[in-house]
Amino acid sequence: MNEVFVLSEDVATLPVAEVAQLLSLPVSRVHQLVRDGQLLSFRRDGGVVVPAEFFVDSEIVKGLSGTITVLRDGGYSDPDILRWLFAEDDSLPGTPLDSLRAGRHREVKRRAQAMAF
User: Fold this and answer.
1) Residue 45 confidence (pLDDT)
2) DSSP state at residue 4
Protein backbone atom coordinates (compact mmCIF):
# COMPACT_ATOMS: atom_id res chain seq x y z
CA MET A 1 0.00 0.00 0.00
CA ASN A 2 1.43 3.36 -1.03
CA GLU A 3 0.10 5.64 1.66
CA VAL A 4 1.00 9.30 1.66
CA PHE A 5 2.69 10.05 4.96
CA VAL A 6 1.61 13.19 6.75
CA LEU A 7 3.13 14.23 10.05
CA SER A 8 0.99 16.73 11.93
CA GLU A 9 1.39 20.26 10.55
CA ASP A 10 2.25 21.49 14.06
CA VAL A 11 5.50 19.50 13.92
CA ALA A 12 8.14 22.05 12.94
CA THR A 13 10.43 20.95 10.13
CA LEU A 14 13.61 22.13 8.47
CA PRO A 15 14.41 21.82 4.77
CA VAL A 16 17.46 19.65 4.07
CA ALA A 17 19.51 22.74 3.14
CA GLU A 18 18.85 24.26 6.59
CA VAL A 19 19.75 20.96 8.29
CA ALA A 20 23.03 21.03 6.36
CA GLN A 21 23.73 24.56 7.60
CA LEU A 22 22.76 23.65 11.18
CA LEU A 23 25.12 20.65 11.21
CA SER A 24 27.82 22.42 9.14
CA LEU A 25 27.65 19.67 6.52
CA PRO A 26 27.13 19.58 2.76
CA VAL A 27 23.56 18.80 1.64
CA SER A 28 24.77 15.50 0.15
CA ARG A 29 26.00 14.41 3.60
CA VAL A 30 22.55 15.13 5.12
CA HIS A 31 20.99 12.89 2.46
CA GLN A 32 23.57 10.23 3.41
CA LEU A 33 22.61 10.57 7.09
CA VAL A 34 19.00 9.88 6.08
CA ARG A 35 20.01 6.87 3.97
CA ASP A 36 22.15 5.56 6.85
CA GLY A 37 19.26 5.89 9.31
CA GLN A 38 20.80 8.58 11.48
CA LEU A 39 17.99 10.94 10.50
CA LEU A 40 14.53 10.58 8.97
CA SER A 41 13.05 12.88 6.35
CA PHE A 42 9.75 13.15 4.53
CA ARG A 43 8.08 15.29 1.90
CA ARG A 44 6.06 18.33 2.89
CA ASP A 45 4.79 20.93 0.44
CA GLY A 46 6.91 19.47 -2.35
CA GLY A 47 10.22 19.59 -0.46
CA VAL A 48 12.20 17.14 1.66
CA VAL A 49 12.17 18.13 5.32
CA VAL A 50 13.48 16.83 8.65
CA PRO A 51 11.66 17.39 11.97
CA ALA A 52 13.29 20.31 13.82
CA GLU A 53 12.98 18.43 17.13
CA PHE A 54 15.63 15.96 15.91
CA PHE A 55 18.25 18.59 16.86
CA VAL A 56 19.51 20.10 20.10
CA ASP A 57 22.32 22.67 20.16
CA SER A 58 23.14 22.08 16.46
CA GLU A 59 23.53 18.34 16.99
CA ILE A 60 21.36 15.30 16.33
CA VAL A 61 19.48 14.25 19.48
CA LYS A 62 21.45 11.57 21.31
CA GLY A 63 19.95 8.10 20.87
CA LEU A 64 17.87 9.00 17.79
CA SER A 65 19.96 7.09 15.26
CA GLY A 66 20.16 3.99 17.47
CA THR A 67 16.39 4.04 17.95
CA ILE A 68 15.83 4.38 14.20
CA THR A 69 18.20 1.46 13.56
CA VAL A 70 16.45 -0.80 16.09
CA LEU A 71 13.04 -0.08 14.59
CA ARG A 72 14.23 -0.41 10.97
CA ASP A 73 15.88 -3.74 11.84
CA GLY A 74 12.56 -4.78 13.39
CA GLY A 75 10.75 -4.20 10.11
CA TYR A 76 9.25 -0.78 10.74
CA SER A 77 8.99 1.65 7.82
CA ASP A 78 10.28 5.20 8.14
CA PRO A 79 6.72 6.65 8.25
CA ASP A 80 5.86 4.20 11.05
CA ILE A 81 9.01 5.21 12.95
CA LEU A 82 8.17 8.91 12.57
CA ARG A 83 4.63 8.30 13.78
CA TRP A 84 5.93 6.36 16.80
CA LEU A 85 8.53 9.02 17.70
CA PHE A 86 5.84 11.72 17.80
CA ALA A 87 3.01 9.66 19.38
CA GLU A 88 2.07 10.36 23.00
CA ASP A 89 3.07 7.53 25.33
CA ASP A 90 1.57 7.75 28.82
CA SER A 91 4.22 5.44 30.23
CA LEU A 92 7.15 7.71 29.26
CA PRO A 93 5.57 10.51 29.76
CA GLY A 94 5.20 12.47 26.54
CA THR A 95 6.46 11.13 23.25
CA PRO A 96 9.48 8.88 22.61
CA LEU A 97 11.16 11.90 20.99
CA ASP A 98 10.49 14.03 24.11
CA SER A 99 12.22 11.32 26.16
CA LEU A 100 15.20 11.22 23.78
CA ARG A 101 15.52 15.01 24.03
CA ALA A 102 15.39 14.71 27.85
CA GLY A 103 18.30 12.25 27.83
CA ARG A 104 16.25 9.10 28.48
CA HIS A 105 17.51 7.36 25.33
CA ARG A 106 18.10 3.96 26.98
CA GLU A 107 14.47 3.78 28.06
CA VAL A 108 13.27 4.70 24.55
CA LYS A 109 15.60 2.17 22.94
CA ARG A 110 14.30 -0.56 25.26
CA ARG A 111 10.74 0.19 24.17
CA ALA A 112 11.80 0.20 20.52
CA GLN A 113 13.46 -3.20 20.98
CA ALA A 114 10.35 -4.60 22.63
CA MET A 115 8.19 -3.35 19.75
CA ALA A 116 10.53 -4.64 17.07
CA PHE A 117 10.77 -8.23 18.30
Assistant:
1) 86
2) P
